[in-house]
Amino acid sequence: MNLVAFTGALELGLLYSIMALGVYLTFRVLNFPDLTVDGSFTTGGAIAAVMIASGQSPLLATVAAFAGGVAAGAITGLLHTKGKINALLSGILMMIALYSVNLRIMGKANVPLLGIDTLFTGMQVLLVMPLVVLAVKLLLDWFLHTDLGLSIRATGDNDRMVRSFGVNTDTTTIIGVSLSNGLVALSGALVSQQQGFAEVQMGVGMIVIGLASVIIGEAIFGAKNVFRATLAVALGAIVYRVIVAAAMRWGLNPQDMKLMTSMIVVIALVLPRIQSAFRKKAMIRKRSAELQTASPAQGSHQGGNQ
């Protein structure tokens, strides 16, 4: 892989790391299987692109994109908590609904931003995005250590216990899913500005990419505490993009990229279980050997005493 491809992978990894932090919030912290991500990512890109194309400030458009993602996540949370719809089904329904909403926002399937000033106009993505990702990561770390953040974490660990302490788990779930989709939409807004367009299909498969980033990051860098987990997720998004860029460089057909992403997630999920099973069998064999070695020695000792 040459320097240009590696630099491009780093840029994409940084842009998508904010989306991965949003997926981490629902997948790991809240234990909520949220498929809204595929729709809310496009929502962020669509809102930002339409506002920038109509002459609005790129910064205002990015903030509005975040707010749009928060609103989408809030509806998913309400469907699950107040509508008593299964969490997975709530996300699927919202994802499907957002496809039409995104088309309404854009008015067409593609909104170009060529020749229009965006957040990255006159800036180097590799110089700006590390600071943006670091700021988002530290803000998320801080939030997860506040009383509300601790309640959200506790809801994901054991919602029944949290309810017994008087915490409204419906509220914590709605806030958690809303914040997650806000981050996802923020990532979508930044990606659309970096690539120079937003299109209605740009969010397809985004949940799998987010999961791959979370799992790869945790497997490589560990997740013993919140600070380390969020850092691992952000770095995991970069590692994932570098892997994809290397695979493309080595001849992978672009139409197989989704298949490769799914395979990475499957391997990352299954491999630790296989390793754990092998370690358990090795420990059993070791203990059996120790018992077999100890039994004759104990028998001869007892015989000597007689």
UniProtKB/TrEMBL annotation:
Location relative to the cell: Cell membrane
Record keyword Cytoplasm present: no
Keyword Cell membrane in record: yes
Species: Ferviditalea candida
Pfam families cross-referenced by the UniProt entry: BPD_transp_2 (PF02653)
Protein's membrane topology: Multi-pass membrane protein
Keywords, comma-separated and alphabetical: Cell membrane, Membrane, Transmembrane, Transmembrane helix
Protein known as: ABC transporter permease
Domain of life: Bacteria
Lineage: Bacteria, Bacillati, Bacillota, Bacilli, Bacillales
Transmembrane segments: 6-27, 59-79, 86-105, 125-144, 165-190, 202-222, 229-247, 259-278
Alphabetized InterPro entries for the sequence: ABC_transp_permease
Chief localization: membrane
